Amino acid sequence: MNKKGGAAIYAMMIGITIIVLALALAPPVRDITATAMNQTVGDTIGLDCTNSSISDFNKATCVVTDFSIFYFVAGLIFIGGAIAVAKIIL
User: Fold this and answer.
1) Distance CA 90, CA 88 (A)
2) Tally of CB atoms within 10 A around 84
3) Residue 84: which of 9, 12, 2, 8 has the closest Cα?
4) How many whole angstroms separate alpha carbon 5 and alpha carbon 29?
5) Domain residue limits, the chain
6) Which residue among 1, 26, 38, 42 has its CA within the 20 to 30 Å range from the CA of 7?
7) In the prediction, which pLDDT does 45 show?
8) In sequence order, what DSSP letters do the residues of 34-72 get, joined into one string?
9) Each residue's pLDDT expressed in tens, for the chain with a length of 90 residues
10) In angstroms, rounded to a whole number, what is the distance separating the alpha carbons of residues 46 and 44?
11) Model-level pTM?
12) How far apart are the C-alpha atoms of 66 and 45, rounded to whole Å?
């Protein structure tokens, strides 16, 4: 096997590892996001996103926080796929 083939296999392994890590970290990120969006309880400070009388700033923060899990997981999957495919194409 030539050097390019070995590098392609190595890049694919790194890419798959990043994708697996993204999927493994999705539940903890979801839990952290849910905790941040809940009401303030004890020492845990939350945004209280279910309250309809919060300010527009807090509503926008709730929306951005809600999208964070998608951006985190999709970003890591994209990076892993880019690493895996880059060595094959180039």
Assistant:
1) 6
2) 19
3) 12
4) 36
5) 3-89
6) 26
7) 81
8) HHHHS--BTTB----TT-TTS-HHHHHHHHHHHHHHHHH
9) 567 778 888 888 999 999 999 999 999 999 999 988 988 888 878 889 988 899 999 999 999 999 999 999 999 999 999 998 887 787
10) 6
11) 0.78
12) 16
Distance, CA of 48 to CA of 38 (rounded, Å): 5
**Token pair recorded at residue 42:** 């004890």
Number of residues in the chain: 90
Both tokens of residue 82? 């880019």
Joined together, the tokens standing for residue 32 give 């952290």
What is the model's pLDDT at position 1? Answer: 57
CA distance 1 to 10: 13
Distance of CA 24 to the CA centre of its chain: 10
